[in-house]
Every structure is written in structure tokens, then in C-alpha cells.
């Protein structure tokens, strides 16, 4: 019993170090601060959507309804951009729908991490977007993940809708909204959030391939489809990395087993600690 307790502490300590010392180095106040920073920065870009939407011909009421009910910036920008380009409403909505599909995959991951009650899940689903997912996944514990998700979602939802209204009302004062390039504000903010998370060579390779696929297919496929096609970059890179790993020569010192343990059973303290976690 003593040995197992020691192993658990050792494993937990190592995990805490790898995640920024989650146990002691991530108080609730720090999570709230980070979540507010993301929520405020991205929420202000709702002004760009309000201006762009009004410039494409939508009324203030229609623009605000999109932010209240859809609440996913990429899909909203895709919809108003397609309408401004002369697409029909059903074609524009289809492109926005394809872009929004990614949120369903976010939800699969967040449902396991947050473990919310059945009554709260429909409400939380409205806030499952790029930014809330990024903040939630960056947290070291379930409590911190719940705080990060809630604060980011609430702050972003309130600011996004407020600045959407202000942008729609002030669109006329700006004149030609297309000349300002405000529709690029949302993607730019998302890239700023994504870039620091690309720490390994595989992650950077996935990002680079996704960009190439998205840009290359953009002129030939309907709006939203290139984004879904770009998602294939992840399994493609992982498949190639797995083949290279399997084809690598066995390290000197023994033939080793198929799982790389060289026939040594995993009975060390760190292994037991990982099992406990």
C-alpha cells in the first residue's frame, strides 16, 4: 500500500510539472484572467461582423439574430460573404453549415472533459466554438476547464452580440466596408490563438498541410467544403508519422518487444502512478 501511494504521488507530480504544475500553479483567478483575455479580444471582433453583415445587405435585426442564434464567427462571415457575392440564401447557408460542422467534433471532446449534467449540455452547446475549445483544452484539471469554458463563453457571447449591434448600426458611417478588410479580423484572432499551440513537428506539419489544402481547394469547391477537406491533414500526417516510426531501426541494446518495453514489465513507480491517474 505504501509503495502504491508513493507511485501515485510521483506520477501526479510529474504530470503537474508537464502541464504547468496544474496542482499548485493554476489558481482559479489565473484561469479567469486567461479566459477573459480571450473573450474580450475575440468579442471585440464582433464589430467587424456587424459592419460586414450590414454592408452585404442584411438588416440590423437579421445581423443581430445571426450572432444570437448561430454564434460561430467563421460561419457567420461565410454566410454574409456569400450573400454579398451574389449567392442564393440556400447556397450561402450550406457553406456556413459546412464550416459549423467542426463544432460538433469540438463537442465530442469537450463533453468528456467537462462532464456536464444533461440539463446543462444543450445550453453549453451554444458556446462550443473555436475559442472556448482552445481555452478549455489548455486547462490542467476539470475544475479549471469548466471555469475556462464558462468564463470564455459568457464573456465572448455578451461582447460578440454587443459589438455586432454596434457594428451594424455604425456601418453607414464607415462607407465601403469591403475596403476596410474587417472580415479578416476573426480568422486573424483565431490564428493568433492557434500559433502558440503548435509545439511539435507533427502539429506544425498538420497546420501547414491544412493551409495548403484549404487555399488550394478554395477556388474550386463551394464555401465551407475546403475547410472540411483541410481537416484530412491530421490523419494524413499521423499516418505518415506512424509508418516512419514503424520503419525506424530498433535501438541498440536488444531486439525489444513490439511495445518498445524490451521485455521489461511496467512495474515501476511511474507506471503505477500513470495507472492511478
How would you describe what is shown here?
With 277 residues, the chain is mostly helical. The protein folds into two domains: 28-197, no CATH class; 200-247. Helix content is 70%, strand content 0%. The protein has 16 helices and no strands. The protein has helices spanning 2-18, 22-25, 28-43, 46-55, 60-69, 73-84, 89-114, 121-125, 130-137, 142-169, 171-174, 185-194, 201-217, 225-230, 233-246, 269-276. Residues 1-24 and 254-277 have low confidence and may be disordered.
Question: Could you write a compact summary of the structure shown?
Answer:
This protein has 277 residues and is mainly alpha-helical.
How many separate helices? Answer: 16
Helix content: over 70%
Domain unit count: 2
Main beta sheet: none
Going by helix content, strand content and strand pairing, the class is mainly alpha
Strand content bin? under 5%
Q: Spell out the helices and strands N to C.
A: HHHHHHHHHHHHHHHH
Write down the Rg.
23 Å
Mean pLDDT: 77
Shape: globular
Strand element count: 0
Unreliable stretches: 1-24, 254-277
Amino acid at each position: 500500500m505504501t509503495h502504491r501511494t508513493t507511485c501515485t504521488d510521483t506520477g501526479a507530480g510529474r504530470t503537474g510539472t508537464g502541464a504547468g504544475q496544474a496542482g499548485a500553479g493554476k489558481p482559479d483567478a489565473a484561469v479567469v484572467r486567461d479566459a477573459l483575455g480571450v473573450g474580450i479580444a475575440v468579442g471585440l471582433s464582433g464589430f467587424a461582423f456587424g459592419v460586414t453583415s450590414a454592408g452585404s445587405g442584411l438588416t440590423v435585426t437579421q445581423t443581430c439574430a445571426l450572432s444570437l442564434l448561430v454564434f460561430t464567427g467563421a460561419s457567420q462571415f461565410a454566410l454574409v460573404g456569400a450573400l454579398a457575392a451574389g449567392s442564393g440564401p440556400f447556397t450561402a447557408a450550406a457553406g456556413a453549415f459546412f464550416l459549423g460542422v467542426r463544432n460538433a467534433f469540438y463537442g465530442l471532446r469537450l463533453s468528456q472533459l467537462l462532464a456536464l449534467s444533461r440539463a446543462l449540455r444543450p445550453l453549453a452547446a451554444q458556446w462550443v466554438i473555436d475559442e472556448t475549445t482552445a481555452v478549455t483544452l489548455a486547462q490542467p484539471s476539470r475544475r479549471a476547464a469548466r471555469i475556462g469554458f464558462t468564463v470564455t463563453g459568457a464573456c465572448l457571447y455578451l461582447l460578440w452580440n454587443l459589438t455586432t449591434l454596434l457594428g451594424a448600426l455604425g456601418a453607414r458611417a464607415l462607407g465601403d466596408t469591403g475596403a476596410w478588410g474587417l472580415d479578416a479580423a476573426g480568422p486573424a484572432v483565431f490564428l493568433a490563438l492557434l500559433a502558440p499551440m503548435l509545439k511539435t513537428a507533427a502539429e506544425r506539419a498538420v497546420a501547414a498541410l491544412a493551409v495548403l489544402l484549404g487555399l488550394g481547394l478554395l477556388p474550386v469547391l463551394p464555401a465551407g467544403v475546403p475547410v472540411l477537406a483541410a481537416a484530412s491533414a491530421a490523419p494524413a500526417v499521423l499516418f505518415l508519422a506512424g509508418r516512419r516510426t514503424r520503419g525506424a531501426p530498433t535501438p541498440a541494446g536488444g531486439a525489444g518487444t513490439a511495445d518498445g518495453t524490451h521485455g521489461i514489465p511496467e512495474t515501476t513507480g511511474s507506471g503505477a502512478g500513470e495507472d492511478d491517474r
